[in-house]
Structure formats: structure tokens, C-alpha cells
Amino acid sequence: MNYSDQPISIVADLQSRIAGFWLAALQRVAYGPQMTHAESLEIIFIIGHWRSGTTLLHELLCSDPRFNYTTTYACMNPQVFPITETAVLQRAGSRSIMRPMDRMSISLASPQEDEFALLALGAASPYEGLLFPKALDRAMATADPDDLDEPQQHDWVGVFLRFLGQVAARKPGYPMVLKSPTHSYRIKILSRLFPNAKFVHLIRNPLNVYSSTISMWKKLCSLYALTGMPEDNAIATQVIRNWIRMEEKLDAAIPSLGKSNYARVHYEALTASPVAEMQRIYSELALGGFEQAVPHIESHLAGHAQFEKNRFDLAAREASNVHRAWHHIFEKYGYAAPT
After folding, report:
1. Is the pLDDT of residue 14 over 50?
2. Tell me: domain 10-333, CATH 3.40.50.920, correct?
3. Which of 91, 117, 292, 324 is the most buried (most CB within 10 A)?
């Protein structure tokens, strides 16, 4: 995607191009032969709109030691993580930081969105909007590789498969859990790449999603933007349009999935009865081994029992406008209209 109308410092651009070059070259020589053919991987994709609870489910699934996943370190350093991750994670120990959008504690070893790795590796990504917030519409249009021209789609697939091959080489033979709201647009191409892929779809009250997503974009863009912020209400307008487009993509792809390849989970049910909902997910997706996973799931829940969710209050008029724009989403997933 061309952002030539969003100029950045030539020094910053040059630094981004050469950073890690020599380590990446060393990695290809030393680690390349161990890479797994990504097309043969077993993958569980966690999908759903931003701020729907996908991180919670991601961490619960990844607490099961039978699964492999992309760490925060790997996603933020995708060019070099195979030859540096072990040493860095050992040195970092249990140190953690708070996520800017919700103050959830994360560490370099925490499960992380693979979309950040795709962005860093140069694949077309909606997260280009974090760097160029005024061009957020343009960035979001890249979400589905099927909407890109053939060379861009080919590049995206190549980057994605190479990265997953490197992640798989860390834990050969283990199913991989991947999470990113961006994958919600990509079920068709992901199913072509990984015919046995499974999808867990998180749903949350649209009013909560709306407020929290706007807050997320504003906070992340303020931290990472290379250019200025969008005009007032531009992010809110994009959020409204974005979920409508996401649902169109989901509706076109989900009916083609097998019964044991798709499970839908409501955030409210997951937070109210996490172990019971996890058991249902394991059963519907035929994952097996739930009894062995329970102690790990319960341990993770106990370690995050004090976490407090963000709270947002929408004015009645704005809530009504959101419902009017998303009324079919409210109805589709069984949420009442705001009162």
C-alpha cells in the first residue's frame, strides 16, 4: 500500500530498512533448514472483532502446553526471533508491562497477535493504520489478501507461511494457536492454505466493542503514529464501517466450514463460566485432552483474577446511532437494543 502522501522522516525510514539485516541473514543460514512446511500445520485461529475478548481466549488456550503459539517477542522481532528468542526470554524472566489499551499485563513470553509480525515483515496489513492514522481507511482495505492484487497477495502468503514455519520449528508437531481480529476477514484464504484449520469466533455486546475499539485505536495511534492523527470522528466512522465489512466476510466464509472446524463463543458466557465454555470449545472443535488442560486453565484464571475491565459510558444518542448502524449485528448475535 502506498503512503507517499503521509511523509515520514527519511532517517526513520532508512533505519527501519536496515535494522536487523545482518541478524536476519544469519538466521537464514543457521535456522532455515529446520523450518517446517507451514501448509502442513494444524492451526486454531481465534477470530472476532477487536475488543471482543480474543486475548482472553488466546491466553486460556495457550495455557495448554499441548499448543504452540507466537510470543510477543517473536511478533515484535520476527526477522530474528528464531536465533534470539530463547536467550532473550531467559534474560527477561517474569518481567511484564501493561498494555496501553486496557492495562492487561503482558510479557515477552505472552501469546501475541501474529499480525504485528506480518506488519514488521512488510506484508500488507491493517496495522499500517497505526503508523499512518490518517490513512486508516486505506490500511483496513488490505485486511483480506483476496482483495489485493496478485503480486501483493503472493507476497502476503509468502511472508505468512515463512513466519509460521519458523514458529513451528520451535515446537515441531504441536498444533498452533493464532489470534488476530484481522484473520476474521481471511477465513477463505486461510482455509485454502490450511484445509484442516479450526476457527473460534468471539462475540461481545456491540456497544462495549464500539467504545473500547475507538479507545484502543486512539491510544495505539498516539503511541506509534509516524504522522498526525485523523480528524474528529474519523476513527468512530471507520469502526462502524469496519464491523459491517467484517460480518460480510464472515457470512461469506463460515457456512463452508465443517462442523468441527468452527465454534462461536460469547464473551459474556466465557467470563461468567470460563472452564465450562472452554470445555465446550474443546468438544466442538474435537481438540481432545481437556482434562489435562484444566489445571493449566484454572492456574491462568487464578493469576488474572484481579484484572479489572475498562468501563465506558455512551451517551443515549450515540448508543442509538450505533444500534441503528449495527442493528443486524445486534440481532444476529442476540443482543438487545440499548435503552
Report:
1. no
2. no
3. 117
